[in-house]
């Protein structure tokens, strides 16, 4: 999507460590946005992005086998020849959906989102024909969906999931973090604190999902009216089924989404997502 930050660069670095040639794709995908979301204001910083990738290439030691060899920056017309209106019922053409995974978690609030992700990723995979693709753990549900897509559509491509890059205080890096200034940036860390509080309870022996999830709701609720929790959930990583008990060794995904609300006129609501893997 562009607006590259350290999280994106970590994906390119990981790819360079395992491959001779790395292709980075940058495309702000309209199919991932609804009419009420921030497509027009989404940060677009192509020149800065290219500079960061050049700097990455220059910084890689000689024993790293690969470099970023190409950056693919298609136009909307190239990716969607029939056009791509934001109203889903007006869209025509071929689209990809991964059912039922796309309807869960993020899909509850953004029912259009993973249809757009699956469609554009299928197109990009067909165009670039990669041996491996690199995604960040921050978008955990997305990685589950992409894994299923690769399997079901028989792409000869391996999925690599790279750990989340975080700010010093723990906030997961995101292109939308540029919207957070002053007090709103301070309260944004609540989502990570809520997840860490659940992780601590789990490590101290609590296994009941209902108790663990209530702890996350409590942490966000105590932060006051500046933030609003969308969801917090515990899911197994295969079909994203909710779990009632978190057993050791199951690798359960603890995920949350939270809105940081406007404080001043002209500010928009910023939606954050984050996750941790328990056991």
From TrEMBL:
Domain of life the protein comes from: Eukaryota
Name this protein carries in UniProt: Pantoate--beta-alanine ligase
HAMAP family: PanC
Source organism of the structure: Arthrobotrys flagrans
EC class name: ligase
Family recorded in the similarity comment: Belongs to the pantothenate synthetase family.
Keyword Ligase: yes
Metabolic or biological pathway: Cofactor biosynthesis; (R)-pantothenate biosynthesis; (R)-pantothenate from (R)-pantoate and beta-alanine: step 1/1
GO biological process: one example: pantothenate biosynthetic process
Reaction equation(s) it catalyzes: (R)-pantoate + beta-alanine + ATP = (R)-pantothenate + AMP + diphosphate + H(+)
Enzyme Commission (EC) number: 6.3.2.1
UniProt entry keywords in alphabetical sequence: ATP-binding, Ligase, Nucleotide-binding, Pantothenate biosynthesis
Keyword field contains Nucleotide-binding: yes
GO MF, one example: ATP binding
InterPro entries found in the cross-reference section: Pantoate_ligase, Pantoate_ligase_C, Rossmann-like_a/b/a_fold
